[in-house]
Amino acid sequence: MRIDTLSPAEGATSRVKRLGRGIGSGHGKTSGKGHKGQWARSGGGVRPGFEGGQMPIARRVPKRGFHNKWATEYTIVNLSQLEKLPAGTVVDFEYVSKNNLAKQVKNSAGLKVLGKGEVKVALTVKAVKFSETAKAAIEKAGGKAEIIGK
Fold first, then answer.
1. Are 77 and 111 in contact (CB under 8 A)?
2. Sheet of strand 124-127: strand arrangement
3. Which of 3, 78, 84, 89 is most buried, by the most CB atoms less than 10 A from its CB?
């Protein structure tokens, strides 16, 4: 095999559309641009979102809200999701994502456990953050609330 014998795979390339090469080519005279007008001109056309001079919708509709791009997003789990688990279960981010315990599993800063609900069995919960009520409820049931660093 030599470099001068290499060629693209069959059907991988298409022929160049040769414009303005006579009437028989099908792309002669106006070269597929029609007659006159903005679109027929060199560099013609309009930018995306241009509405012919009318005030664009992006400017007509008022701006609302704020999204903090530095906010820390946690995957939230309440104690009510953990109360059905068997005793001795080790609950961490991987366990929550595999068993669909959280409503929304994000590629986040980790797991945060909140105190809505009750836990009656001893669980080992490993999370980045705990609310005070969640930590107290887990330890009251005989489990462990371990804070892991992310």
1. yes
2. 90-91, 124-127, 144-147
3. 78
